[in-house]
Write a structure and sequence with these properties.
The protein has a 7-stranded parallel β-sheet with strand order 3-2-1-4-5-6-7, sandwiched between helices. It is α/β, with parallel strands linked by helices and 251 residues long. The protein has a single domain, classed as NAD(P)-binding Rossmann-like Domain (Rossmann fold, 3-Layer(aba) Sandwich). It contains 8 helices and 7 strands. It comes from Streptomyces argyrophylli. Keywords: Oxidoreductase. This is SDR family oxidoreductase.
């Protein structure tokens, strides 16, 4: 795969899990990486240190992606150091309730929908002008297999990510003529993430048994799909969703 040619990638929610794995891989491919975080300052700095130890370039920037002013400040900080952002990997996980529809309030469901879509809207708005100006950009949103395959008590996450996936398709249609691709990476259960840790060992064994590849995804598996969508190699795929689920479902 071609290198990053010094392009700048912003990875939201990059202090751990899929975000950290994506940040490390993009840096290894030659991109300068902005490791965004909300509260995990120490963890984010560790990701930066790992990248720098491997010969890459990275910076940690705190910002709540649910707040427009925080996003604007982050983008300005990146522009001052490295210029504009070429690649957006919007991975930050917005908190959500894990419960049945029967037990859920509108504040829980509607709040998750609002926060999910506002964060994607605001962070995309912030990076789009520079991408448009140069006629090149890569936007990758983190989705979930739950958008298409419902699972007990995951209605808030699955519904909000389904909205995000359709939002990405509309953007892909609009931004294609500007040389900007927009895609979604949709993992199934991923080891070591908050979602995976909500379920007991028996549940995890059933998930593995239902997966032809014989294991759950690892953050590095998801990062590989992110890195392809972010690369120069991806010149013609837009409006697509990569299901990183080991064959648990096949579309």
């Amino acid at each position: 795969m071609t290198g990053g040619s010094g392009r700048v990638a912003l990875v939201t929610g990059a202090s751990s899990g899929i975000g950290a794995a994506s940040a490390r891989l993009l840096a290894a491919r030659g991109m300068r990486v902005v490791v965004n975080y909300l509260r995990g300052n120490t963890a984010a700095e560790e990701v930066v240190a790992d990248i720098e130890a491997a010969g890459g370039q990275a910076m940690a920037v705190q910002a709540d992606v649910r707040e427009a002013a925080a996003i604007e400040s982050m983008v300005q900080q990146v522009q001052a150091a490295w210029g504009h952002i070429d690649v957006l990997v919007h991975n930050a996980l917005i908190p959500y309730a894990i419960k049945s529809f029967q037990d859920m309030t509108w504040e829980e469901l509607g709040g998750k929908l609002n926060d999910e879509m506002y964060a994607a809207f605001a962070v995309t708005k912030a990076v789009l002008p520079a991408m448009t100006e140069q006629g090149w950009g890569r936007i990758i949103y983190m989705g979930t297999g739950l958008s298409r395959r419902p699972r007990e008590n995951m209605i808030a996450l699955g519904t909000s990510k389904a909205a995000l996936e359709q939002f990405a398709r509309y953007l892909a249609q609009e931004l294609g003529p500007r040389g900007i691709t927009v895609n979604v990476v949709a993992p199934g259960p991923v080891e070591g993430t908050r979602i995976a840790n909500e379920f007991d060992d028996d549940h995890k064994r059933r998930q593995v048994a239902a997966t032809p590849m014989g294991r759950l995804a690892r953050p590095a598996d998801v990062a590989q799909a992110v890195a392809f969508y972010a690369s120069e190699d991806n010149a013609f795929m837009t409006g697509t969703t990569a299901a990183v689920i080991g064959g648990m479902a096949m579309y």
